[in-house]
Amino acid sequence: MTTDVTIIGAGLGGLTLARVLHVHGIPATVYEAEPSPAARSQGGMLDIHDCNGQLALKAADLMDEFRGLILEGRQAMRVLDPDGTVLFDKADDGTGGRPEVQRGELRQVLLDSLPADTVRWGRKVSSTRALGGGRHEVTFAGGGTVVTSLLVGADGAWSRVRPLLSTATPEYVGKSVVETYLFDAGTRHPAAAKVVGGGSMIAPTPGREIFAHRERGDTLHAYVGLSEPRDWFAAIDFTDAAMTTARIAQEFDGWAPELTALITDGDIAPVLRPLYALPTGHRWDRVPGVTLVGDAAHLAAPNGEGANLAMLDGAELGKAVAAHPDDIEAALTEYEQAMFPRSTEAATFEGAEAHGTDSDDNTAHDLITAFTRHEQAR
Predict the structure, then answer these.
(1) CA distance 299 to 136
(2) Could you give the angle at the alpha carbon of 197 between the alpha carbons of 252 and 11, nearest 5°?
(3) Distance between CA 293 and CA 8 in Å, rounded?
(4) Going by C-beta distance under 8 Å and a sequence separation of 6 or more, which residues neighbour residue 55?
(5) Sheet containing strand 145-148, strands side by side
(6) For residue range 266-308, what is the model confidence (pLDDT) as tens digits?
(7) What's the pLDDT tens digit per position in 128-147?
């Protein structure tokens, strides 16, 4: 294969693509805006599904490494009413098909599986442009360009590569989450630790919910969901941690104290995460020499599928390129024709994780019904 492969973004999707290409003897270069692998926290837990994420890891020949990351017992799930009543309590019996790992550890496994010079750190893309004949130029902030005959945007929600293919931009979904962490939970936050249990816990209501899971090292990581416009959050000074904590907790007045402790007892300042999505069913006409994977292609509100789909995108694109090394357009066509319906189906799946926080159906009883239906369909 003589085509040079340029991947923008060293997240899970871009790294999986680079790894699958490497397995097939095809070199690629990944450009990442962050200055180093340790530049920031890589987020919390991921449940890696046997129907997509694990298939990607098999294609990357990294299943043994993946198994070494699994946190046993973390597939346990609880659903609670706001008063703290446990309505659903499913233990992790090892048959769930969605083992949990830390995102940062999984990313490091992918990085370690690549030749040392594959990822170029501190290379933030400022613009991209088509040169004709399927070739594209990438310009980096601070100077420097690269010209490539296969450009892959794995650069997330605000992709700099996407405009080569589509005019779509992410829009706010009407919901944000506020993240908190509670460290050494068993000894310092026993009530919160007890209510979360050994895996994940969710207490849903229309417009408000608290979701938490137990990470490595007895850490509780909570996501407090609120369906409010951006202006509502803009009125809160998130640089004032105490004021922010009190304001968010106010929205959960009357909830069980062991649940609101996940807000009020946080060991870091609350972090705001506005949620955005591309239009459901987002697709584009085939453009020679360029494509997208992961959130750059099909950003959706969190539904448990994002990381899994990104890795599967990367793996499937890598396999397609390896199968058509002398016909990149055939490879891209094959990849996109499968990726478009796959991502649309995931975004519209009517399972437990797809209930909108502001929906009247976002109650514990409706969530349990959705869980049960999903389990029966497996």
Answers:
(1) 23
(2) 85
(3) 10
(4) 312, 315
(5) 125-132, 135-140, 145-148
(6) 999 999 999 999 999 999 999 999 999 999 999 999 888 889 9
(7) 999 999 999 999 998 999 99
